[in-house]
Each structure stands twice: as C-alpha cells, then as structure tokens.
Design goal:
Blueprint: H1 10-15, E1 18-19, E2 26-27, H2 32-42, H3 53-75, H4 81-91, E3 97-100, E4 106-109, H5 112-127, E5 135-137, E6 146-148, H6 161-178
Antiparallel strand pairs: 1-2, 3-4, 5-6
Helix pairs in contact: 3-4, 3-5, 4-5
C-alpha cells in the first residue's frame, strides 16, 4: 500500500501510517522496509537509511505519542506527560545535514535518528504553535487520519477530497437520488 503525505505536516503524515484506528486497524509500518519506504516518500533524506526492528519500534512509538498529543489538542484535554517527554527527547536529536551541491541543488544527509528528530520537531512546531487549533480528524466515519485545515474558513471536513471527500459527496448524491 502507498503512503499518503497530504496532511499538511510531516508528523501527521507519520500518524497516518495507521488506518481505521477505531475499527479494523490497518498497520502500514509493519516491517522495517515499510519505514524505509515511508521515509523515502517524505523527502527528508536523499538516500535510504538502514532500519532495524528496534528502529521501527522507535518510529511507531513516536507516531503513537504524536497521535495522542494531537488528539488531546483536538479534544482540548491535557496531554500525557510521558508523550510530551518522548516527543521532546526525540525533537532534541540531531538535525538532517543540509548542504548546497555543485549543481545548486540541496542535499539532505543523515540517518534514522536525524529523520525522526526532524519529524518530532515538526510535531512540536505544529502542536505548540498557532496552527494547533487547525488540527482536525477526517469526518469520514471509517477514516481516522489527522490533518491541518488551512482552508480560508477553517471548514474543511475530510483529510483528502480525492478519497474521503469524494466518497462522502458520492454517498450524499446517491441519498438525494433515492429520496
């Protein structure tokens, strides 16, 4: 299965590697190779990095901490101190090394620690900043993806109009046709 990266935040893209959290859970980071594919799609690093089972467990732990922190933000409830500590510890990690190549392009070097630290920093920036109030959960009943609503009126309801939004609009159309 392909990963989706359209949430508006890299940390929420990581959170989206679990589908259907409330029903038939779909784990998209089942193997270290899955994490390698996810990271390749983020554009954080220019080259694939080796990932072990322990590395995968660390990434999944980050993902779940970000999910719980984002849900607390959405619900207006206190965040778990352990989640905040875990996020802050990872965010304090080493940065991806940027350099300007001879051809004028940007090169991004680092390993898994740097990639996870960058993802954690995007979560800190989002959840601790002015856009925290724009974090929403998809309104589709079978979708649990979180996203940043950057629409002008803050009225976006679906994580993606091409999937969940389209299915909802088709269902509404069919219901009107039956009536």
């Amino acid at each position: 299965m392909d990963f989706k990266y359209g949430t508006g935040n890299l940390a929420l893209d990581l959170v989206g590697t679990v589908g259907h959290r409330r029903s038939d859970v779909l784990e998209l980071l089942a193997t270290p190779a899955d994490l390698v594919r996810f990271l390749a799609g983020t554009g954080l690093l220019d080259r694939p990095v080796p990932v072990s089972e322990a590395d995968l467990a660390e990434a999944v732990s980050l993902r779940e901490a970000v999910y719980r922190l984002a849900r607390a933000t959405i619900e207006g409830t206190p965040a778990r101190p352990a989640d905040r500590r875990a996020l802050n510890e990872l965010a304090a990690g080493p940065a991806v090394r940027l350099r300007l190549a001879e051809d004028g392009s940007t090169r991004r070097d680092g390993g898994l620690a740097e990639a996870l630290a960058e993802i954690a920093r995007t979560a800190v920036t989002l959840l601790g900043g002015p856009e925290a109030a724009s974090v929403k959960e998809c309104a589709a009943p079978d979708c649990t993806r979180l996203y940043v609503d950057r629409s002008r009126k803050q009225a976006r309801r679906w994580c993606d109009m091409r999937s969940c939004g389209n299915r909802a609009k088709v269902a509404e159309f069919r219901a009107r046709q039956k009536a």
